[in-house]
Amino acid sequence: MSRLNYHHLYYFWRVAKSPSLTEAAETLHISQSALSAQIKQLEQSLDVALFIRQGRKLVLTDVGRRVLAYAQDIFNTGEELEKFIQKDSATQVQHITIGVQSNLSRNFIESFIAPLLKSENVDFSLASRGMTDLLSGLVNHELDLALTNRAILSESHDTTWRNQLVARQAVAIVGPYGEKPETPFPQGYEDKKWVVPGRNTDIRSSFESFCATHQYQPDIKAEVDDMAMLRLLARDSGYLSVLPPVVVKDEIQSKVLQDYESIPQAFENFYAITMPRKFTSQPVLDLIKIAIHQYSVDHSI
């Protein structure tokens, strides 16, 4: 086989990542026919078919998907090298970009980034995104790390996520101050209404298991995915809620809300998500180490 033409491979990579050949050609500033010719030359040099046409769409073959995985590694590493050189050669002040899951506890985020606020050698950006956009940002080197409340499993052979548990918050029943039932759960909770996290969350699963153990059917008034909104409803609705008390620590301290009862073995976990890279920013490594140390000391935020 002749020596691999990385110029052709780059064009293949861009086409495979684009919604259409037309869009890829426009982004690369070449004609569709020229781009098709480059792809055809790569297929001939490799002696494989990388795409098949289905209607007006180009679809990767099985071999094409494998080649894409290699191309992804090659060109992502090149982009990573450029980013590394730009960061470390141009200035002594390093910049890192942290992606934040949009419904994450603001108190946790503030605690996690606190060391950066004290550093004179690092500045940073916070980007609030949904989970899909967070992972895309990591793959495309837009983000140095992402903060989430769940670990990310590797869903394909070409993507590996590093999940580091950096914090854990206990979960409790929280309600209006001074209205805590004097009897153990579920006695005294018969006529209570609830605002709870959305389904498919660890907190909700733990709460449902807790209720099932006590043969209690909660009267759920609202399900809320966003922790900040859950905090507001817990404060203003007069209903009971299920969340880490740290989320409403100000309301508890001011005696607007009260921690009624902890839910056994119920936690909200927080992860720092990164991808394996040859050049990981030292401030990112230091930030994760600080968070891990704090978690190991007190197991809470």
UniProtKB/TrEMBL annotation:
SUPFAM superfamilies, per database record: Periplasmic binding protein-like II (SSF53850), Winged helix' DNA-binding domain (SSF46785)
Annotated coiled-coil segments of the chain: none
Keyword list, A-Z: DNA-binding, Transcription, Transcription regulation
Protein family membership: Belongs to the LysR transcriptional regulatory family.
Domain of life: Bacteria
Domain HTH lysR-type: 4-61
Organism, as annotated: Marinomonas polaris DSM 16579
GO molecular function ontology, one term from the record: DNA-binding transcription factor activity
Protein name per its UniProtKB record: Transcriptional regulator, LysR family
Family annotation (InterPro entries): LysR_HTH_N, LysR_subst-bd, WH-like_DNA-bd_sf, WH_DNA-bd_sf
Gene3D superfamilies the UniProt entry points to: 3.40.190.290, Winged helix-like DNA-binding domain superfamily/Winged helix DNA-binding domain
